[in-house]
Amino acid sequence: MSTNERDLIVGGQAVIEGVMMRTPNAYAIAVRKADGTIVNTAAALPKWSDKAPILKLPILRGGAVLLQSMGLGIKALNYSASEAFAEAQEAEAAQIEVALTPAVIEGEGDFAGITGGVPGLFPIPKKKRSKDELKKGGTAAAASSIVFALIFNVLLFIAAPLLLTNAIFVAAGWAPQAAQNSTATAGKDAGEPPAEMPALRRTWNSVRGYLHPVRPTVGFNLIDGLIRMSFFLIMIIGFSLLKDIRRVFEYHGAEHKTVFTWEKGLDLTVANARPQPRQHPRCGTSFLMVVMLVSILLFSVIKFDSLLFNFLVRIVLIPVVAGLSYEIIRLSARKESGAFFKLITRPGVWLQNVTTKEPDDSQLEVEIEALKESLKLEPKTSEPELAPLS
User: Fold this and answer.
1) Which end of the chain is more exposed for a tag (fewer CB within 10 A), N or C?
2) Is 263:273 a contact under the CB 8 Å cutoff?
3) Averaged pLDDT, 353-358
4) 251 CB contacts (<8 Å, ≥6 apart)?
5) Could you give the C-alpha distances from 172 to 129, 230, 348, 359, in angstroms and in order?
6) What is the pLDDT of residue 346?
7) pTM for the model
8) pLDDT digit string (tens) for 252-262?
């Protein structure tokens, strides 16, 4: 392998019983099936910026890369679920005598990947479908999964922290006008005879005082960010207790070990990958920490006296926050030994003690195969650049 080829920055994503590995212009997904064999699929991955040159501009390119990565990640999860549980699904289908209206289709549907394709959770139609039908269903499943993920993340990581922070500031008296209004509202409610006001309305009037808009400051956004990160940590730690998710975290660790092996110029073998660290500074968890910091600073400048507007601006500026965070990682990654890069990625490296687990040799084999397959499709003339986060 030439030095120029080794300059390529690779990344990936752990999936069910496997991994998706990416180079700047290609990707490959490798999965270990129930019978122990490894299957893979690989393809070139044209950049969106090749079709729309405007997406090469700073900030815009970050948003484009992340959206493309999200779509590819959902596709990889659907593929891994269908392959990892294919034999179990076929065995289950063989026992079913009644053809079911295909609300849930073999290896697809809104629940594929979310449930991990657990056999027996839904009956599986025995009838095999054409490749065109499978492709169409897979596209619909990927689209619906992305929409669900976006709505879930908006509610959990934007709406809930914003409302809680607003309520904390009102309750603590850090927003004098809001506190006075809240007290006045509460006093008015207290004087109302219970019989003259329905319980639901009394409850709403009590809650409404805490929803009085607080103009965000750096302190407001800092608490908002801490609440958001607390939700994330609770979710990740909870997931880590599940056996199937722990397997995904082991593949996550194997992915990092394989990336380190590549970056150090070593042959891609299990023996070389085994001793490598399982925490990598360019992991997506490091990116999330940068996103939180950028959000705190940006929304301390762009702020409104309306709670609704403060919520909407956080949604509208998601691509801007992502783009700025991507540029920070991109610039700092050019010198990974630098103090700034180490500073902004250190919290993410700490968090990887939860999101990665020590893999076994069989998992390393899957990671290595995926990377080798993606490298086969990488043009020999590729310029070194920042590939997706590992």
Assistant:
1) N
2) no
3) 92
4) 14, 15, 17, 18, 19, 359, 363, 366, 367
5) 60, 20, 31, 47
6) 86
7) 0.76
8) 999 999 999 99
For the segment 111-156, what is each residue's pLDDT rounded down to a tens digit? Answer: 333 333 333 433 444 444 554 554 555 566 666 777 887 888 889 9
Treating both helix axes as pointing N-terminal to C-terminal, what angle do 160-172 and 176-191 enclose, rounded to 10 degrees?
Answer: 80
Strand order of the β-sheet with 18-23 is 11-15, 18-23, 26-32, 38-44
Domain-wise residue ranges, the chain = 3-150+157-175+212-376
Are the C-beta atoms of 15 and 24 separated by less than 8 Å?
no
pLDDT, position 179: 42
Cβ atoms within 10 Å of 244's Cβ, excluding its own = 12
Closest CA to 153 of 76, 232, 73: 232
CA-nearest of 7, 47, 9 to 389 is 9
pLDDT at 340: 78
Please give the Cα distance from 379 to 370 (Å, whole number): 17
> Do residues 299 and 315 lie in contact, with contact meaning Cβ atoms separated by under 8 Å?
no
Instruction: Point out which residues pair with 38 in neighbouring strands.
Output: 32
With beta carbons less than 8 A apart as the criterion, state whether 82 and 135 touch: no
